[in-house]
Amino acid sequence: MDKFIIRGGRPLHGEITIGGAKNAGLKLLVAGLLTSERLVLTNVPHIADIATMRALLTQHGLSAEAVNGDKTTLSVGGDITSTEAPYDIVSKMRASILVLGPLLARCREARVSLPGGCAIGTRPVDLHLKGLETLGAKITLENGYINARAPNGLVGERIVLPFASVGATENLMMAATLAKGRTEIVNAAREPEMVDLANCLNAMGAKITGAGSGHIMIDGVEALHGAQHRIMSDRIECGTYACAAAITGGDLRLIGGQIEHLGAVVRAFEEAGVEVTQEGDAMRVRRTGALRGVDIMTEPYPGFPTDMQAQFMALLSVAEGASMITETIFENRFMHVPELNRMGARINVHGSSAIIRGVHGLSGAPVMATDLRASFSLIIAGLAAHGETILSRVYHLDRGYEAVERKLAACGAAIERVKD
Ligand code: EPZ
């Protein structure tokens, strides 16, 4: 298992190109199941989760091939030969559950392993299943698998989500594109990735309006056709590198970063004393003065994204004064806290809230990655820490971030990957 060795104390200066969004790209690959023609995706990030999703699509009979040898462009297509998503793949990546709606819509049946929980929570999929049942699917759970059937096809209906679930919104939106009649999703997730998915589906011939609002309408069509779609830039990757620039007192231009995609994170940066501006196709981040403590509560978009919580906590660990972070989305997303405390942070967790008392400086230490975003929070701390930080289990990071050590080293960070 690879490790990172980081020597802190060097301000980051320069440019970082932000890649395609993991949490858009995974679903856009799945959208390839909805048509018998080819869907060409560009700006595809080179990350492990994308490789896992390509393997899952292959399992269903589709190919997701690099075009002209360039994995940044994938051509997805082929005939569905299996409607089963096996446990060994689904358990590796929970986003696999998103094949359920498209398989039901196209093939009128699906057998998908129930995804287990993961490090950050139990991650149930009840809203996905209830929504599909509202569209007419018959669903039973046996031997750890979801058996879903819709012999007469799905029928549009009004679905009210009790929680603005990202995955449930995406699963239902995709399923509804081929249902008979109109589907309404009320209290839908409003994340920018919903808009990106709807734009791609509409390019494929779907009839979707309202994506990005809490109320999405989908008028079913007979079939979808092929299309080409560029994946939006990864707003969480952008916010993550912004934290790295801020904690090191640097000045970074994040190419492809879009301020409006970061919602409440921009306000939190400004309150913390970090300057964030849009300069054409780049988001510029610099910190000249002292960092100030900020109170944060994670919420569905446009609130502060839970996927930025761990990274922002690392930043606040060296701010002047105290901060409080309340995690309202997942039940166990503070696993970076004990590792940050080993680096000299002063963070106390009380239920779903963490109190962060800013310290003058952190000290490098051997630390362990536990999940994707927690991994990067330890890198952010290591970039500011005095001395050497050794981050193990970097495979967590490789699931969702591309070429981290290359991007950071190019901006002056002392970071290297060592093969364990
Ligand atoms: C997506 O997960 C993202 N993953 C997550 O990013 C992100 O943190 C999350 O949305 C929230 O923004 C991908 O897009 C691949 P949810 P998802 O459905 O769809 C509960 C990362 O780091 N819930 O909005 O699973 C659930 O338990 C990852 O990139 C139900 O109770 O998120 C959780 O507490 C981590 N029943 C909350 O809702 C359901 O049927 C949010 O879940 C579905 C969800």
Structure overview:
With 420 residues, the protein is α/β, with parallel strands linked by helices. It folds into 2 domains: 2-19 and 233-419, Alpha-beta prism (UDP-n-acetylglucosamine1-carboxyvinyl-transferase, Chain); 22-230, UDP-n-acetylglucosamine1-carboxyvinyl-transferase, Chain. It is 30% helix and 26% strand. It has 14 helices and 24 strands. A hairpin with a 5-residue loop joins strand 12 and strand 13. The N and C termini lie close together (5 Å). Ligand EPZ binds at residues 22-23, 26, 95, 121, 123-128, 163, 165-168, 305-307, 329-330, 372-373, 400. Cell wall formation. Adds enolpyruvyl to UDP-N-acetylglucosamine. The active site is at 118 (proton donor). Its EC number is 2.5.1.7.
Secondary-structure blueprint of this entry?
Blueprint (H helix, E strand, L loop, with lengths): L2 E5 L5 E5 L4 H9 L8 E4 L5 H12 L3 E5 L2 E8 L6 E2 L1 H4 L9 H8 L1 E5 L12 H9 L3 E5 L2 E5 L8 E3 L5 H11 L5 E5 L5 H12 L3 E3 L5 E5 L7 E4 L4 H13 L3 E5 L8 H9 L2 E5 L2 E5 L8 E3 L11 H8 L5 E5 L9 H7 L3 E5 L2 E5 L8 E3 L3 H13 L3 E5 L2 H4 L5 H6 L4 E5 L2
Parallel strand pairs: 2-15, 3-14, 6-7, 10-11, 18-19, 22-23
Antiparallel strand pairs: 1-23, 1-24, 3-5, 4-5, 7-9, 8-9, 11-13, 12-13, 15-17, 16-17, 19-21, 20-21
The structure holds ligand EPZ.
The site of ligand EPZ has 24 residues, from helix 1, helix 5, helix 6 and helix 12.
InterPro entries: Enolpyruvate_Tfrase_dom (IPR001986), Enolpyruvate_Tfrase_sf (IPR036968), MurA_subfamily (IPR050068), RNA3'P_cycl/enolpyr_Trfase_a/b (IPR013792), UDP_GlcNAc_COvinyl_MurA (IPR005750)
Pfam families: EPSP_synthase
Catalytic activity: phosphoenolpyruvate + UDP-N-acetyl-alpha-D-glucosamine = UDP-N-acetyl-3-O-(1-carboxyvinyl)-alpha-D-glucosamine + phosphate
